[in-house]
Amino acid sequence: MSTQKRTKYVHEGKYVAEVDIELLEDDTGWSPYLTVEDACRLDDIREALRRGDTLAASRLARVFRLEPIAASH
């Protein structure tokens, strides 16, 4: 079994969290897949962002606020 480090982005409303995870690869048909811990952490981050609790989300990931910009012609 091998692992690969990846970055996942969780987008909820006006927030995006950048999360470092590990993908596990093996010889099964389910590969690559997340560790249970990473899957739970992604769920926790998504739920915190849905509640607007950026403090809780920022303990687990890097959190950014999205802001619209005016397009210039």
List the helices and strands and how they pair.
Blueprint: E1 2-12, E2 15-25, E3 33-34, H1 36-51, H2 54-58, E4 62-65
Antiparallel strand pairs: 1-2, 2-3, 2-4
Structural description of this entry:
Helix content is 29%, strand content 38%. It is α+β, with helices and mostly antiparallel strands and 73 residues long. The chain has one domain (2-24, 35-65). Strands 1, 2, 3 and 4 form a four-stranded antiparallel β-sheet that branches. 12% of the residues are buried.
- Helix coverage percent: 25-40%
> What is the number of strand segments?
4
Distance between the termini: 52 Å
Structural class: alpha+beta
- Tell me the series of helices and strands, N- to C-terminal: EEEHHE
Shape: elongated
How many domain regions?
A: 1
* Beta-strand residue fraction: 35-45%
**Biggest sheet, in brief?**
4 strands, antiparallel
Low-confidence stretches: none
Radius of gyration: 15 Å
Query: Whole-number average pLDDT?
Result: 94
Supply the number of helical segments. 2
Task: Give keywords.
single chain; 73 residues; alpha+beta; 4-stranded antiparallel beta sheet; 38% strand; elongated
